[in-house]
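About this split. The held-out portion is used to measure sequence recovery: a designer receives only the structure tokens and must propose an amino acid at every position. Recovery is the fraction of positions where the proposal matches the reference. Here is one held-out target exactly as it appears in the evaluation file.
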């Protein structure tokens, strides 16, 4: 969704109404070719007119000061959440595997952490210390040593007390006050002030998503994420207030897609009534209401099976099964970024504290994509070791395939060792 402000800014910056894709290509090309001066150009034009290159990196003392200023209750929450994430991510971390046939053939699958990653932390309309936790901690569990945080130079971004305090608490020393496309390009291509990374993860707006897509191949990325989304499954056992709160919580991302599926028409009406009631008391009600009107839906299904079928077709980022017996649905659903089961597992637990990362596939990509985890920060490779006897045993099979493919030098490289 391109805002009116973004469209006007594009026109004033480039002198023509470029598409978001064209904007991203223009900025990334200039940063790749022009380095620091190109980053400064766009940092000044888009974020901070007074930005200088020596202001890209947030001083460690500034981070330490933020940590001292942060409320004790906030830091306690950060520590507890870090522990939850570490426990879960450590449990699912890939381990090296060795397979042997017992006759001289040893095969290994090895995992090694990436050396350096970059994390995008949004900072336009709100501060997101949760993004730091949900991306950096899995990377640390995987063994990544160098983590660079990239956030816009705003009060909600790289200058935010809670964001900086969280980084300091986690032992992260690199925070860069560069946002948007120029931030992505800096991480991907590297400039003297910001060394290049191996992988870029984390959420962002449309321009950030397109920039990550463009630099993929130069670096790895987690995903090309779209607006946040939830599907709520309801039946006669659903608590309407609970379901309504989950739909509104997603809508307040603005944009955020909120869909409820049920074979119970009366329940859908009750949920709608609760939505109207709760919107009268929430601070971001106007934003949530606009998202519900534009990106929300209440779908009456013919049966439970149709609920399951539609949910699988939507492949939502978040699936909230708000019923007494959630396994009745979850056992039949294949496609969802993360599933939240029962009356006491709201999506907000996954957003903030549970342990799995809140960076999840959107836009139906949960049909084939997975949420971010510690394993995304591991690179795998194989090791192959044969004895002479094992080589001689397998040589006829290699020779057969090599001959059929006409790759006789391949065949010879095995035969020459087996005589």
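Reference sequence for scoring:
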């Amino acid at each position: 969704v391109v805002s009116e402000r973004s469209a006007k800014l594009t026109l004033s910056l480039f002198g023509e109404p470029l598409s978001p894709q064209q904007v991203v290509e223009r900025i990334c090309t200039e940063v790749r070719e022009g380095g620091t001066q190109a980053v400064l150009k766009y940092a000044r034009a888009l974020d901070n007119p007074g930005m200088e290159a020596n202001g890209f990196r947030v001083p460690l003392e500034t981070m330490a000061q933020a940590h001292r200023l942060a409320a004790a209750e906030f830091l306690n929450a950060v520590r507890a959440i870090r522990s939850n994430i570490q426990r879960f991510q450590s449990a699912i971390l890939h381990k090296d595997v060795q397979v042997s046939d017992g006759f001289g053939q040893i095969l290994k699958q090895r995992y090694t952490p990436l050396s350096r990653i970059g994390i995008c932390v949004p900072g336009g309309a709100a501060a997101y210390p949760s993004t730091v936790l949900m991306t950096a901690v899995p990377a640390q569990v995987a063994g990544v040593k160098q983590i660079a945080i990239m956030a816009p130079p705003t009060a909600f971004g790289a200058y935010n007390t809670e964001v900086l305090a969280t980084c300091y608490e986690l032992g992260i020393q690199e925070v860069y006050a560069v946002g948007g496309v120029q931030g992505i390009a800096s991480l991907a291509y590297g400039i003297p002030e910001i060394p290049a990374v191996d992988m870029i993860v984390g959420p962002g707006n449309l321009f950030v998503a397109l920039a990550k897509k463009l630099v993929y191949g130069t670096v790895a990325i987690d995903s090309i994420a779209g607006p946040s989304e939830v599907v709520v499954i309801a039946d006669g056992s659903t608590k309407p207030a609970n379901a309504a709160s989950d739909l509104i919580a997603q809508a307040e991302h603005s944009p955020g897609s909120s869909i409820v599926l049920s074979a119970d028409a009366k329940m859908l009406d009750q949920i709608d009534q609760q939505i109207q009631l709760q919107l009268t008391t929430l601070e971001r009600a106007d934003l949530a209401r606009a998202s519900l009107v534009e990106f929300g839906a209440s779908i009456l299904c013919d049966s439970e099976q149709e609920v399951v079928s539609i949910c699988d077709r939507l492949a939502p980022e978040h699936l909230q099964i708000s019923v007494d017996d959630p396994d009745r649905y979850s056992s039949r659903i294949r496609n969802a970024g993360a599933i939240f089961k029962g009356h006491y597992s709201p999506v907000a637990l996954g957003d903030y504290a549970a342990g799995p990362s809140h960076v999840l596939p959107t836009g139906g990509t949960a049909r084939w994509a997975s949420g971010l985890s510690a394993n995304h920060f591991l690179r795998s490779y194989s090791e192959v070791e044969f004895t002479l006897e094992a080589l001689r045993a397998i040589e006829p099979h290699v020779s057969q395939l090599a001959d059929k493919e006409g790759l006789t030098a391949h065949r010879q490289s095995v035969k020459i060792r087996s005589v």
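Annotator remark: The radius of gyration is 25 Å.
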